[in-house]
Amino acid sequence: MGQSTRKREPNGSNEHYTVPWWESEVIDEVLWEQAETKRKEMEQRGETPLCLWDSSVLEKPESVKLEGLGSVRSSRVRRLARSRAGVFNRPGIPVSVRGFEWESLLLVGKSGVPQVVAMRWWSREKGGSSQHRQQQVALLGKAAQRWGRKVRHVFDRGYGTGPWLWRLWRCQVRFVVRWKKGNQLIDASGQERKAWEIARGKRPWGEARLLWETHFRV
Length: 218
What we know:
Layout: E1 5-8, E2 15-18, H1 24-44, E3 50-59, E4 70-73, H2 75-80, E5 96-108, E6 115-122, H3 132-147, E7 152-155, H4 162-171, E8 174-177, E9 184-186, E10 192-194, H5 195-199
Parallel strand pairs: 3-7, 7-8
Antiparallel strand pairs: 1-2, 3-5, 4-5, 5-6, 9-10
């Protein structure tokens, strides 16, 4: 980070502080330090910190000259093109617009305000910073190095792939993945089977507990 300089207005009443250059790594490190403080507070309360992963895009369809813009699939166009009462739209190919890819990590507990751990934006265009999986691997490596098994990572269905599970296993982290029902796993005998078929008839690990959901009981 560059050295700060001070400038005084002609009337001598106001002062402005400027920085010749600023590195994004400084902001990243501050977020990680704040998240570590939050994690220790949860640990002292006896809670298990949850690290939530999320991927999305930031659409900038009207922008042309903004630095780093790439091509992203527009969820807004897909949502507006849905057939509704009195309106029929024939399903077509996905529509792409200009924008940024986005990956974020949030640290949450049973109470309190969620803490931002990290946020990354990048472009898929040739010459951009990196591709999606490379960004995720970099964040996973950093989280595993700092926290190890002190937090539990939570992933949505988009992360439920073989290569990503292999990465999680290599990093030896605790995690929960929302699984796609059509995906298959390889059981102990080497056969491909659905996850529920492998778990069928197996006794639960640890102590059985009754969990309550807002609509039905599990």
